[in-house]
Amino acid sequence: MKLIKWLLALVVTLILLVTVYLTVFFDPNDFKPEIVDAVKKQTGRELVIADDLSWTFFPVIGINLGGVSLSNPEGFTPKAMLEVNKAVAEVALMPLFSQQIEIAELSLDGATINLVTRKNGTSSFDGLSGDNSKKAATPAAETSSNAKLNDINIGGISITNTQINMIDEAKKQTQVFTLKSFTLGEFALEQFAPIAFEFSATMPDMTVSSEGKGELKLSRDFTQLVVNGLKIDTVVEGESIPNKKLETSINLATQIALDKQQLSVDIAQLTAASITAAGKVGVNYATKIPQINADFQVGDIDLDTLLPKTETAAATEQAPAASTPAVEPDLSALKQLDVKLKLTVKSIKVANLSTQNWLMDVGIKNGVLDLTKLNADLYQGKLLVSAQVDARQAVASYQFDKKVTGVQIRPLLKDAADVDLLAGTANFDVKGKGKSLIPEQLKKNLLANGHFDINDGALYGVNIPQMIRSAQAKLKGDLSPETKEERKTDFSSLTGSFSLDNGVATNPDLAMSSPLLRLAGKGTANLLTEALDYRLTTSLVNSLKGQGGSDKDALAGIDIPLAITGTFQKPEYALDTKALLNNQLKEETDKAKEKLKDSLLKKLGGF
């Protein structure tokens, strides 16, 4: 018992002697000139420590400092790169003898960092790493790697009122990032510790505010960092933001293998506006270009609510007045990505077009975006797409293969383009390639070939049987007013192939059939001007009975010319009555010749 008392007395005496020595013979302020001089030699910057340094002692040993500033390079504004109002570091003394670190408090308050980029490209970071930095780093690294700690305990870390000002003189822009608070609660190895933060940013076109909380744990061998229950709520506001305000919330857990340089994130819930999602992300950052694997499941996406029609219409009206020429989008960032993404989406609505059950596989590597698969339900049918975008050149190139099966074409056209032109069950396939992603250049440079067939449908805006009946009546001299009937032509099938070049789709073999008539011909559709130019012929199978015609129609079997012109929005249909009359006269002449021939043969005894 006496031995223990003597040992305790010895320890206390030792601590008192150290305290007396540090306070009487060792003044940390004596080293301020040496520290300032060393910083000046290493970086060429001015370090100022305005306040006196002060010690704290048992049960912790620490140092308080304040009024610290580090200058920017000469000629920069602001003059200070770093300013610190107050910093406190306190470490428990006794555990150090057992190779244990117990930090009672680490706090930083009122730090301001001014990072300036000048018009000539120089920045606040220039000159901070001197020639001796690499040489000095090696032994330090070796020392830290050889040192072994039995334990680390932190009473708490607090960072408050820290502001980073990023100033770009060339763009005349200043971005302000403020860490209002960051706290780490009582921390020990292999135990979860609470964390929380509050952050805001002010940029030229938006403001961001964010806050979050969760808990983290570090393994005893410093190889595994785990963050659990991290919930982050963010609000983004600005004129360029959909509806000028976007609120997001994310709840996630992450594990970082520090030794293998791998990270995995499990997102339990992500919400942005009315969109909800969940998924997993894995990152291997040990490679030169980090490898990212992601798998997301997304709910309903209604992009129309994020892009109000009023604003979209206003932007459309103002678009022609813009004098700035369109430029190719910069996709150079794709070269720095190695990503594999699997995505499922319950539904997507954009520009009033509705799709469901999206399944997508995307890869990005070496500047090439490869959409290996995209499946979706589309108006009672199926959409299947594969595509590739090659961004290795300044002007990107692309290729695609698209198939649509069993789609109800009328509601699709009405929702997508407000066009009421066709109805029926459509099958469509097209393969294409091109260069440039500027919208107008897309139409001009696209080369494509495809085929379509539409079954059990109707052509809206024209009633071909009525047009034929009206033309037939006029040829007979009947000028009475036409009866009003629905402008629709039913058909059992409408087929054709097409090629696309220089913005013009050429359709050489359009064919339509129905119980009443046949239609065939060719034409073009200009995607740039939306102009239609078709020259077709239609012929009656037998009669127009059931649509106002007689049992045996006089025009049955006669080719009737039909022209389709106008635009996608307003197609115009016209019968060539002159050619119709000529064809009818020719038909009557041929019949008369046949009748005369039969009569002569009878008179000649059947020869």
What does this protein look like?
InterPro entries: AsmA, AsmA-related. It comes from Shewanella baltica (strain OS195). With 607 residues, the protein is α+β, with helices and mostly antiparallel strands. The protein contains 9 helices and 30 strands. It has helices spanning 2-25, 32-43, 133-146, 303-306, 309-318, 409-417, 439-445, 464-475, 577-603; strands at residues 47-49, 54-56, 60-71, 80-92, 100-109, 112-117, 151-154, 157-168, 173-184, 187-188, 193-203, 206-218, 224-237, 245-257, 262-272, 275-284, 291-302, 338-350, 353-365, 368-378, 381-390, 397-408, 422-435, 447-460, 488-501, 504-513, 517-526, 532-540, 560-566, 571-575. The protein has a 30-stranded mixed β-sheet that branches. It is elongated and about 120 Å long. Residues 1-26, 131-147, 310-322 and 546-552 have low confidence and may be disordered.
Fraction of helical residues: 10-25%
The whole-number mean of residue pLDDT values reads 80
Q: Span between N and C termini?
A: 149 Å
Number of distinct helices: 9
| Assembly state (oligomeric) | single chain
| Main sheet characteristics | 30 strands, mixed
Which residue ranges are poorly predicted, with pLDDT under 50 across at least 5 consecutive positions?
1-26, 131-147, 310-322, 546-552
Please report which band the strand proportion falls in: under 5%, 5-15%, 15-25%, 25-35%, 35-45% or over 45%.
over 45%
**Content-based structural category:** alpha+beta
Q: Which of globular, elongated, flat, extended, rod-shaped describes the shape? A: elongated
- How many β-strand stretches? 30
Radius of gyration: 39 Å
